[in-house]
């Protein structure tokens, strides 16, 4: 835990805290305000998934949904980026470091924003199917837990640990930072998508759900890579002392 007091962790946790505050006092979140009863949900579903989802999106304007999604990313993702950000920082010339970080974050953020409409639609469909907020949250949590235990999540997580070459000069260096950010985000989406469904399904408890899901994803990211197989989810194995001393955490500790 002492490692979290050293750079770049304080800045990343502060960024996540800012995202949580903005999310708490933001304009709202993607919900189903008109679907207050099971009968209403069944009636909409009887008209087809496409129409039901269309009504949900009408009730939640895309601009507001995407702004809330961006705030959720700000609240959950910064601590996950400690190792790749330090890799970009160390691999760039001192005069180019800020620019290199900006390109990496741009590539990372653009891909996550592109994935946002798909994941938000899945969360809305889950709410429609469950017809109950508690059931929707329980379903999202169960799905995320099963995904965390699967070999496919472990394979995607292993790929997200890979660091790419970063050039030193010109547009080639900028392009490689941008590409690194996008590729890293691709594998991050592949490994974390199920946990990103939990906060939208949590209703009024979306802020605690964001904190919990973010902590789970950070624990998974700091765990040492292993062979893809069915296993106990990382967040259920946090008492294992080996998770505290991983190559990723040690690399960030000596930044």
Structure description:
The protein is an all-alpha fold and 255 residues long. The chain has twelve helices and no strands. It has helices spanning 9-24, 38-46, 49-59, 62-76, 82-91, 97-130, 133-149, 151-160, 170-192, 198-201, 206-222, 247-253. The protein starts with 8 loop residues before the first helix and ends with a helix. 36% of the residues are buried.
Number of helices: 12
Instruction: Give the low-pLDDT segments.
Output: 27-41, 241-245, 249-255
Instruction: Report the sheet with the most strands, covering strand number, pairing sense and barrel closure.
Output: none
**Overall pLDDT score:** 82
Strand portion, in percent? under 5%
The termini sit apart by: 15 Å
Structural class: mainly alpha
Query: How many runs of DSSP E, i.e. beta strands?
Result: 0
* Succession of helices and strands: HHHHHHHHHHHH
* Amount of helix: 55-70%
- Shape descriptor: globular
Instruction: Work out the count of structural domains.
Output: 1
């Amino acid at each position: 835990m002492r490692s979290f007091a050293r750079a770049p962790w304080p800045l990343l946790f502060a960024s996540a805290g800012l995202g949580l505050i903005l999310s708490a006092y933001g304009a709202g979140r993607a919900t189903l305000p008109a679907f207050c009863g099971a009968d209403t949900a069944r009636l909409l579903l009887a008209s087809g998934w496409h129409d039901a989802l269309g009504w949900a999106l009408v009730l939640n304007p895309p601009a507001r949904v995407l702004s809330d999604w961006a705030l959720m990313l700000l609240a959950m993702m910064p601590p996950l980026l400690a190792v790749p950000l330090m890799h970009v920082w160390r691999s760039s010339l001192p005069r180019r470091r800020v620019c290199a970080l900006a390109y990496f974050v741009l590539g990372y953020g653009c891909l996550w924003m592109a994935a946002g409409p798909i994941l938000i639609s899945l969360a809305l469909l889950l709410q429609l199917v469950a017809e109950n907020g508690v059931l929707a949250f329980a379903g999202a949590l169960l799905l995320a837990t099963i995904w965390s235990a699967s070999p496919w999540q472990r394979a995607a997580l292993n790929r997200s640990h890979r660091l790419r070459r970063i050039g030193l000069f010109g547009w080639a260096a900028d392009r490689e930072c941008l590409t690194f950010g996008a590729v890293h985000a691709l594998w991050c989406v592949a490994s974390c998508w199920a946990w990103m469904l939990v906060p939208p399904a949590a209703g009024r408890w979306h802020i605690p759900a964001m904190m919990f899901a973010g902590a789970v994803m950070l624990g998974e990211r700091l765990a040492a890579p292993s062979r893809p197989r069915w296993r106990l989810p990382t967040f259920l194995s946090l008492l294992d002392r080996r998770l505290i001393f991983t190559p990723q955490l040690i690399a960030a500790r000596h930044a």
